[in-house]
Amino acid sequence: MESFTAISLFITGLIAGTFGGFLGVGGGFIMLPTLSFLFGYQLTTAIGTTITAIIFTAISGALGHLKRNNVDFKTAKLVAISGAFGAIIGSSAFFYLSKDIWLLSLLLGLAFTYTSLRMIYEGLRREVEKKTEQIKGSIKAKLLLGSSVGFLVGLLGLGGGFALVPSFVYIFGSSIKLAVGTSLASFLSMAVVSSAFKIYQGVVDLIAVLFLGFGAILGAQIGAKVVEFMPSWMLRLFFGTVFLYIAMRFIFDALYGIN
Questions:
Q1: Which domain holds residue 211?
Q2: What is the pTM of this model?
Q3: What is the mean pLDDT of residues 161-186?
């Protein structure tokens, strides 16, 4: 690999990791299009490489938020365990449900649009929220959330954070900062399972993963640090804006698939 390519991958990982640690996501929405369009990777390899690199974002970001008491470890453990099983089922089901995935993508896109607009609205209102120390909710509810998100991760290649953060906030009543940190700790297992499937299928560039991963490790620490000093309303505004982009992408992909 040429030096310029290696440095470019590192910078890509750095930017993606910063957003990941900042928003509680893997940063795949930056890595995937960059690998596909700028570096010329085939889509399958770009997806596999991205999912594998996200592991570094999740580990580094979770540790960064753990230091700042932004992780509910009990909730993360429940969601991670059930999420891993969900990811296995979703990855296996992909081969049988691939023809109907466009409909699920469309429904998710519409649901995500509502959630993203709600977060943007709340951010613009600059509502002050109380910091929560734990994410409320029953064990069964958290196991169900984890398995459902894990299934979507395995089936759609969806970054788990974009489903977990709003779920923690609006279903379980978590503060946004606690939701961000707990999300990173939660979807690590889902990323590992999905990555294992992709490596087995031979669609992961492990050298690229290393350079992306090194950048993501540093970036996720920066993102976690920024969250510490950012007002919760601004974090909601940023997350809602990025989440709206993801929602529009799901809708576009679904409609494009129809055609």
A1: 3-258
A2: 0.84
A3: 92
